[in-house]
Design goal:
The chain is of the alpha+beta class. The N and C termini lie far apart (56 Å). The relative contact order is 0.12.
């Protein structure tokens, strides 16, 4: 408890507040602070099976807004067997409109970025180890006045642009937020789903100044959240879901009570309230209408090279007679860091995590020694000690992982990771082997990969994205990125600023200006940007780029007036004699992921959704790895 009090005291005197887009639980999260306002708090009821018992559960969720209404995110208190009243307690504590100072943030990793429509795709855990302090007024504090949260949210796109953004993302379904003028809400009518279950549905129509209309199917109890809204009022809807209509190129948009937040007010909503609109017929339709006890996991020996997107394609009911061993290289793994989320009822380490690589993301179960390796520790006791004192963090470096696909006793396929090792700094890479591991799957949201900065953008709707070339199409497609690696060279001395000399004297903010992006040079472009990251004395030499070359991992971008700035989480310096080789390797990585490089591989273009993809017999050597350090070779050994 003393450790928590000490950290809270440091947070109270914080002089360094960051924009909400930069919130993380790594270098920035350890030294900076944020101020947020709670909007639309709610308790969500749901049920699930556990040990043959149907559990009735509750979780708390709210929207957290910042001084910039276009930067907002979810806050969450998940269901906890040890405190089944946690959600109700959260509703009493985090009242609508209350303002909180956040430091040492942790995240609820049960949420996938694909199902978060907020500009910030992480979901803040409103429990320890996150440090929270309620603030009633900013008072005379100039730093607090500068970051005092807005009264509402402002979804980033108008209705027309929202649909354009949906078409740029490859997924068939996604989550989104919109702001529009409330024009019509029909009466509920009864319908049935594919399983012949009876459901109630109504139709909501929104319009805005893009002269488009937006139809949303309102399901079940979500109707109660909207029935009292006045016709003609501007509203923001957070947590809608959109699905491609198989009949055309449009999208069906749905709202469910468990995910929907209805937020009134704000400059954007108020302007739509004042907008003249007498009939929805004046507007162009933008949407379609509606019609753990674990057996030991053996990962030694030969494994099949694969990727996150391929793992994500595996159907839950795919038949496997035995374990299928796989290996993924150069991944980043995000996992919870609270004791209740990393241990079983018996006290064993067991972690549900999200694995990211060049192809996207996939949910996995981390077991055995991998639970310790995930956090860069050597023993279980080290993991728990770091968890208790608030210093636990997953590794920032990319890692190689080994695991198995296993069909459990209920016939469900589970994805276990049982070995994690930091990826070698010296490695080989093959475009054809990467394509071979992808098979017929398509890259999905959540990639972690190297890219030229000219292909990276902070999209107002989808967050950090990379631009993808599509064969035979001139249209731009975006792929949601979890993190992006840049190869950079410093042009000037980096500047160092102590974050808070009194309470956190070993915390520093390092800024490197006019940094050259080297992967763009190969495209005939010279691009510069500013890098900013947080560090302590141990990592100071890495974060001080000065006039050296490095690979940096960035989590967000800011572009304004021709200036581009990136938030840095991790830095690895590159020696001059290794630069040419590293540039070539990163070029292959990004070109394979974002262009057609290597797309002519046909000999192993099988669908990961079919069992044949996971059978080692008949697979080319490029798909097979004997050691966790091994890299896939080109099927034709040409690259």
């Amino acid at each position: 408890m003393a450790a928590v009090q000490t950290r809270s005291a440091a947070a109270r005197n914080h002089g360094k507040f960051e924009p909400l887009r930069n919130i993380d639980n790594r270098s920035t999260g350890r030294h900076a602070a944020w101020v947020v306002k709670v909007l639309s708090p709610k308790v969500v009821e749901y049920s699930f099976q556990s040990k043959g018992e149907q559990i009735l559960a509750k979780k708390f969720r709210c929207v957290l807004t910042s001084s910039n209404p276009q930067e907002y995110m979810y806050g969450s208190i998940p269901f906890d067997f040890k405190n089944r009243n946690a959600a109700e307690e959260g509703l009493k504590k985090f009242t609508d409109g209350s303002v909180w100072e956040i430091s040492s943030p942790a995240f609820d990793h049960k949420y996938r970025a694909l199902y978060v429509g907020c500009p910030k795709k992480a979901v803040l855990l409103l429990l320890a180890p996150t440090v929270m302090r309620r603030i009633e007024e900013p008072g005379d504090s100039v730093p607090l006045q500068a970051v005092w949260p807005n009264l509402t949210v402002h979804p980033p796109c108008n209705l027309q642009d929202t649909v354009k953004m949906l078409k740029m993302i490859r997924q068939a379904s996604t989550t989104l937020d919109v702001c529009g003028k409330f024009m019509e809400l029909t009466e509920q009518k009864e319908t049935t789903d594919k399983k012949q279950n009876k459901l109630m549905v109504a139709e909501l129509v929104l319009v805005d100044d893009s002269h488009h209309s937006f139809r949303v199917s309102i399901w079940g109890d979500a109707y109660d959240l909207l029935k009292d809204v006045s016709r003609g009022e501007g509203i923001s809807l957070v947590g809608l879901s959109a699905m491609k209509d198989s009949r055309d190129d449009g999208f069906k948009v749905n709202a469910w009570h468990s995910s929907l937040h209805v937020i009134l007010g704000g400059d954007r909503a108020d302007s739509l309230t004042q907008m003249a609109a007498s009939s929805t017929n004046e507007f162009v339709p933008a949407t379609s209408t509606f019609t753990p006890q674990i057996e030991l996991v053996e990962v030694q020996g030969e494994a099949l090279h694969s990727c996150a997107a391929a793992l994500a394609e595996v159907p839950n009911d795919m038949p496997f007679l035995n374990d299928k061993r796989f290996q993924l290289n150069r991944c980043l793994i995000e996992a919870p860091i609270s004791r209740g989320a990393i241990t079983t009822e018996k006290g064993d380490l067991y972690i549900r995590a999200t694995l990211h690589d060049w192809s996207g993301s996939v949910e996995v179960e981390v077991v055995e020694d991998a639970c310790v390796q995930l956090f860069g520790c050597k023993t279980k006791s080290q993991v728990l000690a770091a968890c208790d004192d608030g210093t636990l963090s997953t590794q920032l470096k990319r890692v190689n992982v080994r695991g198995v696909l296993r069909q459990d006793t209920r016939g469900k396929v589970r994805k276990f990771v049982a070995q994690i090792k930091v990826s070698p700094e010296s490695y080989t890479i093959s475009a054809r082997a990467m394509r071979s591991s992808l098979g017929l799957a398509q890259p999905v949201t959540g990639v972690v990969l190297a890219a030229p900065i000219t292909r990276v953008a902070q999209n107002p709707m989808h967050g950090l994205t990379v631009r993808v070339d599509t064969r035979g199409s001139a249209e731009t497609q975006l792929l949601g990125a979890h993190r992006v690696l840049l190869l950079v060279h410093g042009a000037t001395k980096s500047s160092v600023e102590r974050v808070n000399e009194k309470d956190d004297p070993d915390a520093f903010c390092v800024t490197s200006s006019n940094v050259k992006c080297l992967l763009d040079e190969g495209l005939g472009q010279e691009v510069h940007l500013e890098l900013r990251g947080y560090c302590d004395m141990d990592t100071m030499l890495d974060f001080r780029l000065d006039m050296e070359t490095a690979i940096v991992m960035v989590s967000s971008l800011e572009s304004e007036g021709g200036r581009c700035a990136a938030a840095v989480e991790w830095v690895r310096k590159i020696e001059p004699h290794n630069l040419g080789q590293m540039r070539a390797l990163l070029d292959i990585e990004w070109k394979t992921a974002l262009t057609d490089l290597g797309a002519d591989v046909l000999d192993s273009h099988m669908s990961p959704a079919r069992p044949e993809y996971w059978e080692s017999d008949g697979q080319p050597p490029a798909r097979k790895a004997r050691r966790v350090d091994s890299d896939a070779k080109s099927p034709r050994r040409e690259q």
